Amino acid sequence: MSKTKGSLLAEFGTGQGYLKAGFLGFAKSGKTFTAALLAIELHKRLKLDGPIALFDTESGGEYVAPMLTKAIGRPPVGLKSRALSDLMAVGKECADGASGVLIVDSITHVWREVGDAYLDQVNKARAMRSLPPRRRLEFQDWKAIKDKWNIWTDFYLNAPLHIIICGRAGFEWEFQDKEDTAGNVHKELVKTGVKMKVEGEFGFEPSLLVEMERVQVPDETRRDGFTFTHRARVLGDRFDVMDGAVTDNPTGAWFAPHMDMLSPGAINVVDVELKTDMGVDERGDAEWTRERKRRKILCEEIQGEIVKAYPGQTKEEKKAKVELLETHFQTTSWTAVENMKARDLQVGLDNMREVFAEQAATEAKEAKSDD
After folding, report:
1. How far apart are alpha carbons 233 and 145 in whole angstroms?
2. Which fold has domain 20-178+186-259?
3. Are residues 195 and 169 in contact, defined by beta-carbon separation less than 8 angstroms?
4. Residues 103-124: tens digit of each pLDDT
């Protein structure tokens, strides 16, 4: 991307240089095998240096290693692990020149490892304080887990490395209204789609996302009358040259339209540095926190002024208090006052104090004239 001096804007169009592909599917759908075929085709087509690398979480790499060795002329390298820290180390080593293409199989295990590791460390800390262990993650845990996971997401998107991930599939569910024969409507949980079992947002990151499916097809040559095939369906292609394409038993060359759109060597890095000013002060309070504190203080000052002017609980005083709210805050609801913005509360408070001051001055003047 070329950039004009002194401007944030840059010209687009240099292309995407690195394949970021993802395969999702249920058991025995052909994810690992097809990913290996794609890696071989990519390696040959782009004339990549070095071996193909595998980050293997379930020993599936051993089954495709002979095929990779035969096709590339050298055995694959890699690591058998499920730890995110190991995946990051392997990815960085590959990006530094150890390999031109990395297959991660399965990314689902890595995602689960992050959550399991977090819960394990929480329970170790609880044990040191003689607290009972927690059985599952809680809502407040996910922020820390997602922050840790985002280190991998940023690497996946920005690394000068071809990365192919495999992930287990899971069903998406949602409640829908269903009407029975009597006309009564009730909620029913139904399957609405398939997604990769991984952190929710990461499933959308691959530029080429393929669903693998094990499909039963008729086969008259077999005694049982059918056989199975591995069906590939492109769920997403950001180049829009294969989107929606379907084939059975895909070869690596089948993905050529997408690979042909790559611009070898082009690097387009997304700036992931935290830059947004959240208005946090020296005490660590964000702007919304200060606003909330300011509202509380102003509401207490408003109450103080009202009570000072009308300390009693007679019918007349209660009426006068309501009239004060309506005059200065355009509401008779104290809850509504508490939810007003601090700047509006300040204006109302200043006006009310000004009226009280004028009343006090008038009363003092009248008392002096009486004397």
Report:
1. 31
2. Rossmann fold (3.40.50)
3. yes
4. 999 899 999 999 999 999 999 9
